[in-house]
Design a protein that fits this description.
The chain has no helices and 11 strands. Strands 1, 2, 3, 4, 5, 6, 7, 8, 9, 10 and 11 form an 11-stranded mixed beta sheet that branches. Strand 2 and strand 3 form a beta hairpin.
Length: about 170
C-alpha cells in the first residue's frame, strides 16, 4: 500500500536534493553533473536515486542507487590530501554494489534484476553478499540475484555505449 509518487518534470540546472530521485521515460534521456564533477547519463526507462553527493572539503563519497534502466558515467573524483582517503563513487543496484575509482563505465539493470557492468577505463569493484570482482578497462561483469558477480573480457567495449551520443535528427517525425 504505497502512495503514488508525484513526479515533477526536470529542467536545465535543476538541483537534486540528497535522497532525491530522477527517472526517464520511453524516448528520453537525462544528463546529470554532480558537484564532485561526476557526469552521468541515464538512458530511457531508467530510475536513479541520488543518495549523497561528495563534499570536496570533507572528501566524502558520492552514493547513488540505480533501480532500473541503463546509466553511463564518467567519474573524475578529486584527489585527497595524504591524510584523507580519496573520493570514490558508490552505486547500488538490486543485485550488487559497485565502488568506482576515476573511470568511464556503463551499468545496465536487466528485467530479472541482474546487473551488467562494462568498464571503458579505470577500475570498478563489484560486490554482493556472495562475492566480489575487480573489473578493469575492457572488462565486464554480471551480478545475478543470489550469485557472486562473474567477470569476462569484451572484444570492443566502446561499442556497448553508443546510445550515449548517437542521436539522429528525424525531421519527418515532427
Amino acid at each position: 500500500d504505497s502512495e503514488p509518487v508525484n513526479w515533477i518534470a526536470a529542467a536545465v540546472k535543476d538541483q537534486i536534493k540528497p535522497n532525491g530521485f530522477v527517472r526517464t521515460l520511453a524516448n528520453s534521456q537525462m544528463a546529470l553533473l554532480l558537484a564532485d564533477r561526476t557526469q552521468m547519463r541515464l538512458n530511457q526507462n531508467s530510475q536513479m536515486q541520488i543518495k549523497s553527493v561528495a563534499d570536496s572539503a570533507e572528501f566524502t563519497q558520492t552514493s547513488v542507487r540505480l533501480t532500473a534502466g541503463r546509466a553511463w558515467s564518467q567519474a573524475r573524483p578529486q584527489t585527497a590530501p595524504a591524510q584523507k582517503k580519496p573520493q570514490t563513487l558508490s552505486m547500488e543496484t538490486p543485485s550488487a554494489t559497485m565502488s568506482i575509482r576515476g573511470t568511464d563505465w556503463e551499468v545496465e539493470i536487466r528485467p530479472d534484476g541482474s546487473t551488467q557492468l562494462v568498464v571503458l577505463s579505470g577500475e570498478v569493484a563489484m560486490a554482493n553478499d556472495h562475492g566480489s570482482v575487480e573489473v578493469g578497462k575492457g572488462e565486464a561483469a554480471v551480478a545475478e540475484m543470489g550469485k557472486a558477480p562473474v567477470k569476462f573480457l569484451l572484444v570492443n567495449p566502446k561499442q556497448r555505449v553508443q546510445w550515449v551520443s548517437s542521436w539522429k535528427p528525424q525531421p519527418r517525425r515532427w
